[in-house]
Amino acid sequence: MSGHPAGKDSREGRFFYPWERTLDRLVTPFEEFIHRQTTSGMLLLATSVVAVVLANSSLRDAYLHMTHAPVTFRIGGTALEMSWLHLVNEGLMVLFFFVVGLEIKREVRVGELSEPRKALLPILAALGGMLTPALFYGSLNPSGEFARGWGIPMATDIAFCVSVLVVLGRRIPQALAIFLVSLAIVDDIGAVIVIAAFYTQTIHLPSLGWAAAVFAVLVAFNLSGVRRSLPYALAGAVLWILLFKSGVHATITGILVAFCIPARSRHSPDYFRANLEELIGRYRKSCGKDKNVLTSTELQSVLNRLDDEVRLADSPLRRMEDRMHLPVALLVIPIFALTNAGIEMEWGSIEATLRHPVTLGVVSGLFLGKMSGIFLFSWIGIRLGMVSLPTGVTLRHLLGVGFLGGIGFTMSIFIAELSFPDSREALLMAKSGIMLASLLSALTGYLWLRYLCPRPIPARKTG
């Protein structure tokens, strides 16, 4: 305690409770860890391994019972019945799609996708990375019960891809990471469109009509400048129920709500600064009278006003994205992986698994189709003069990104569940293919970018 009494600090004006310093020393390293960009990918990998171990251990029956256990919600006279697996995939994953929607809106408003010239290269790359894998899969499964899985290899898992780039660190140019994130955002847009258009079963028009009315209310919230999260959350919950009843995949709720979140702050930086200076002056005067916040109504008034000013100077979209990122990365995605990644390995039939048309279609689509589609469409755009390479990025870098694009994990498993809801064999083959292709893509992309691509030239120091 450096000779200072408990609760005191060497600098005047700070107070600590008896255990607060000790707790800070314990919590701070953990907070730093969970905020790292690689943590989400590491946690996703760890929970996937746990799921595979559970599905192939003496706990297999308990694991399968848990994932298929029935769950019932009753709201008034309405009952929603589903398994735990469907609750995770259609309920919890709404939060994942909400964050995806916020990221898409931010990129379109102010990111790499906001300028047509800069946006065209990742759009072309993502388009190639969606069409070519579908063609690879379709060539091996042109018809029959397995043809429905053509959408599985179209998706890219941004968490894993960014984790690989973070591990590579300064061995790759920063512009390449920006390009990959932009590509993955466009890829997510394509995946959402595919899910909505091609993986919807039957449509219940009355429910869909009411859902459209609720979405109109959300749009009205946006146009009216509603910035609190509660109205959007309540309307979003109603929209989810209606879309679930309509037959449209309910996770689309997350995207629709995200698109309605205001992206602009009410107060400009200059206006906020002027108000801040006024509040600081009021705070100084209030402190001269009474320095105890609990007894000074003037201090309380200033702090409440300051809280409002900070909220209005910030963008609701940025604030919600910041708040939702960690819960989704550290809870939603790991729970999804734990529920969906449990592949039952039958070592005696592993050769038959690798030869299965679904497995071959998924592996060829993700590992070869993604790489060739991303690189080929980008190369054609460059050759035609439509786009140019980002600063410091070479064609070799694009090929490495093409390999990383084959890491389809989260979204691919999600689409696999939609593709084969009634075929346990096909779903098992699809998940096996996703795991194998994602592993091959991650290793190949990492080794290619580390050993076969030129390292960026460090900027010279001036002065």
What can you tell me about this protein's structure?
The protein has 463 residues and is mainly α. It has two domains: 322 residues, Up-down Bundle (Na+/H+ antiporter like fold), CATH 1.20.1530.10; 44 residues. It is built from 18 helices and two strands. A two-stranded antiparallel sheet has the order 1-2. A hairpin with a 2-residue loop joins β1 and β2. α6 packs parallel to α18 and α15 crosses α18. The mean pLDDT is 85.
What sort of overall outline do the alpha carbons produce when their principal axes are compared? globular
Tell me the major beta sheet: 2 strands, antiparallel
Element-level helix/strand string: HHHEEHHHHHHHHHHHHHHH
When the domains are counted, the total is 2
Please name the CATH architecture of the largest domain.
Up-down Bundle
Short description:
The protein has 463 residues and is mostly helical. The protein contains 18 helices and two strands. The protein has helices at 20-34, 37-55, 60-67, 84-110, 116-140, 158-168, 174-198, 205-223, 229-246, 252-260, 269-289, 297-313, 316-340, 350-355, 357-383, 395-404, 409-419, 424-451; strands spanning 70-75, 78-83.
Write the layout of secondary structure elements.
Layout (H helix, E strand, L loop, with lengths): L19 H15 L2 H19 L4 H8 L2 E6 L2 E6 H27 L5 H25 L17 H11 L5 H25 L6 H19 L5 H18 L5 H9 L8 H21 L7 H17 L2 H25 L9 H6 L1 H27 L11 H10 L4 H11 L4 H28 L12
Antiparallel strand pairs: 1-2
Helix pairs in contact: 2-6, 2-13, 4-7, 4-10, 4-13, 5-7, 5-15, 6-7, 6-18, 8-9, 9-10, 11-12, 13-17, 15-16, 15-18, 16-18, 17-18
